[in-house]
Amino acid sequence: MQAAEYVQMAEVQDRHWWFEAKRRTVDALLRRHRVGNGVSSSAGRVLEVGSGTGAMVEVMTRRGRMFAADAYLPALRLLREHRPTAADVVPVAANLLSLPFAEASFSLVGCFDVLYHQRVGDVGEALAELHRVCEPGGYLAITDSAFPFLRSSHDVATHAARRFRLPDLTAPLESSGFTIEHASYFHTLLFPAAATVRLTKRVLQGSPALGGVGEAGDVNGGAAGGDDVPAHSDLAPVAPWLNAVLLSIYRLETPLTVRFRMPFGVSLLILARRPSA
Length: 277
Prior knowledge:
Rossmann fold
């Protein structure tokens, strides 16, 4: 992600409907599965990998003492500056593919909109590392970008290498040793509008390649014209009235998302568990 995007994220993440909808949805899913309510051998230690500027701090700290791992040090500094509730969070400079923690260190691991990134060279290796640090009986919560055809200038600005369909992650999660507790798309009710905007951008601006990765994940794929696409994300302040209207949609969507497998959406949501034995 471009450096300016981190600064913008830190400034809007507390109020912006997109972040608040994600917090509500992930929190509702964890509450539904009673994640963080039991006794853990890791003493309630939780880890967020790719914590960025701390948009998910409140959700994670409700489940235990939080370790925030990110390879980009300025993001960890922004987390401290913009999240007053992060005083007890332990920041750790770390790469997802080589986490500096012992095996079975955490009862809950969060990986929120990270696996799409160009720096994640091998998603399977990343999931294996997340499995290693998750304790037996512990959970892994994931959100990420859905459907390759939705790629746009937003993906260029955020250094995206890929977008996922659910099987693109559920299958390798199971191969890594996790069991799937719940898997669904979300941002479903806004999907038609989002898809229209993204596809219109592709018509007007060209079709960006995601880090050289094509629609099916082929490193030799990717559509032409990506180099000419302006690199700016969709993240921007929203008028308070519109922010409230958009957020109100999730009063209906969030309960559905955490109970059922929604058929499509701009993002995906997965809760996986490392078996106890």
